[in-house]
Amino acid sequence: GDTKASSQTKEQFIELKNTFAVKLKRRRSVGQQKGGTLLGITVFVCVEKGLKLKDQAIHLSNLSEDHCDMWFRHIKDILNGFQNRPKSLKVIVNPHSHKKESTQIYHEHIAPLFKLADIKTDITITEYEGHALSLLKECDLQDVEGVVCVGGDGSASEVAHGLLLRAQMDAGRDTDSIFTPVRAPLPLGIIPAGSTNILAYSVLGIKHPVTAAMHIILGRLQPVDVCTFSSHSQLLRFGFSAMFGFGGRTLALAEKHRWMPSNQRRDFAVIKTLANLKSEDCELSFLPLQNPKLLTQEYNRCLPKTNNTDQWKTIQGHYLNISIMAIPCLCSVAPRGLAPNTRLDNGSMALIAVQNTSRADFIKHLKRYGSLKNQFNFPFIETYTVQEVKVRPRPRSGWPDDIAEENVDFHSRRSSVISTEGAYPWNVDGYLMEIASEVHIRIHPQLINLYGRNIEDF
Ligand SMILES: *[C@@H]1O[C@H](CO)[C@@H](O)[C@H](O)[C@H]1NC(C)=O
Ligand SMILES: *[C@@H]1O[C@H](CO)[C@@H](O)[C@H](O)[C@H]1NC(C)=O
Ligand SMILES: *[C@@H]1O[C@H](CO)[C@@H](O)[C@H](O)[C@H]1NC(C)=O
Ligand SMILES: *[C@@H]1O[C@H](CO)[C@@H](O)[C@H](O)[C@H]1NC(C)=O
């Protein structure tokens, strides 16, 4: 950070709630480790410029050992008293994200801040996809007060999934059947260092690693809604957003070209999928958002699950692209978000379905995301506010409707053919999930805390 000497004449205020470290300042010669002439104390504060947070060192000159020591201890006591601020973190770095910058970003810009704030860190550099998940399933999290992920959406989503899965395991939940998940006990911090950073962007409003670090250090928590994705009542994944159709196919194609640099790969996949635009014949069943109070009570398990069977709605058609999002999904190309009509933490999901239309109109729709209003003002787009959705693709080649569904045993030979050849790509927070049958998505209000803020309130 910057160093700024306090002027003798100008008064300056330092808010203790924005202060995160204090040091005694001494003049030392090169290589000298101890002692030296006392110059005063330096306090480190977080300064805000719009959404951007930065660290700043403020030096207070004073040559008295007793005086400085008293101030040093006093400020230290106050800092130690802030309850939400983590004292130890598990840090998971994906060294392969984007331009392979994350290790450098962490060591150069983030680790020194954590050290200054006296936060103990235990770092794992991941070695393969799925490493973070297997680590979180079994590592000792007893003395950790938060988990930090350095990477893009793929890494962040894997860590969020891992944290939530671990919470269910620790609570003895059977994830093989429809269940009410328990909250993640540990908050998650995301240091954006990937090629897409929608998750980080949604709680920071900006792609800026130091801003993320400052929210973590100051312990600023934002509760966030999470979805469960399941099929045949089996949990597949925890996540925040999903795309089916165009969004899923684009990701599947990009994954097949991993050898390309990440930005190039995405553009290539978008262009190629657009050129080969295809609609998906499917049935969408959804439960429109009910009384939010009931939802919260159900979530707190004060009430048995309400019987909503008669309120489900079903629509059917040929869809080009379907988004199901629990959070607004802010990003640089969509400043109001890919799902501007939902909130981070209010217990609802946006279901946005794009019906078959011409390529030109579909492109017009995609471009409209960049504007500030009327994103969905096209006759071929339907939007709903929902709490549950089932997406059931109708098999392309004239198979009976239900073979990928209930009668797995009876049709086992044929349904395994479907699941290898007829799997549909889903994009869940940038993670590719290939599923042949119906996917059931449910929202769980405020299931995890992320370090950050609600951009809406800003
Ligand atoms: C469709 O796909 C694009 C790109 O993959 C995505 O950004 C967009 O939000 C998706 N959703 C809708 C409803 O068009
Ligand atoms: C959440 O916010 C959206 C958009 O403002 C609104 O449509 C929805 O009803 C809200 N959900 C709840 C549970 O209040
Ligand atoms: C829920 O309601 C439906 C129709 O309203 C009924 O058929 C079903 O038996 C009910 N289920 C339970 C568990 O009460
Ligand atoms: C989708 O729309 C395009 C362009 O309007 C049309 O050529 C195509 O046949 C439609 N596909 C389906 C399955 O309706």
UniProtKB/TrEMBL annotation:
<dbReference type="GO" id="GO:0016020">
    <property type="term" value="C:membrane"/>
</dbReference>
<dbReference type="InterPro" id="IPR050187">
    <property type="entry name" value="Lipid_Phosphate_FormReg"/>
</dbReference>
<dbReference type="GO" id="GO:0042461">
    <property type="term" value="P:photoreceptor cell development"/>
</dbReference>
<dbReference type="GO" id="GO:2000425">
    <property type="term" value="P:regulation of apoptotic cell clearance"/>
</dbReference>
<protein>
    <submittedName>
        <fullName>Ceramide kinase like</fullName>
    </submittedName>
</protein>
<dbReference type="InterPro" id="IPR017438">
    <property type="entry name" value="ATP-NAD_kinase_N"/>
</dbReference>
<dbReference type="GO" id="GO:0005829">
    <property type="term" value="C:cytosol"/>
</dbReference>
<dbReference type="InterPro" id="IPR001206">
    <property type="entry name" value="Diacylglycerol_kinase_cat_dom"/>
</dbReference>
<dbReference type="GO" id="GO:0010842">
    <property type="term" value="P:retina layer formation"/>
</dbReference>
<dbReference type="InterPro" id="IPR016064">
    <property type="entry name" value="NAD/diacylglycerol_kinase_sf"/>
</dbReference>
<dbReference type="GO" id="GO:0006665">
    <property type="term" value="P:sphingolipid metabolic process"/>
</dbReference>
<dbReference type="Pfam" id="PF19280">
    <property type="entry name" value="CERK_C"/>
</dbReference>
<dbReference type="InterPro" id="IPR045363">
    <property type="entry name" value="CERK_C"/>
</dbReference>
<dbReference type="GO" id="GO:0001727">
    <property type="term" value="F:lipid kinase activity"/>
</dbReference>
<dbReference type="Pfam" id="PF00781">
    <property type="entry name" value="DAGK_cat"/>
</dbReference>
<feature type="domain" description="DAGKc">
    <location>
        <begin position="84"/>
        <end position="233"/>
    </location>
</feature>
<dbReference type="GO" id="GO:0005634">
    <property type="term" value="C:nucleus"/>
</dbReference>
<dbReference type="GO" id="GO:1902176">
    <property type="term" value="P:negative regulation of oxidative stress-induced intrinsic apoptotic signaling pathway"/>
</dbReference>
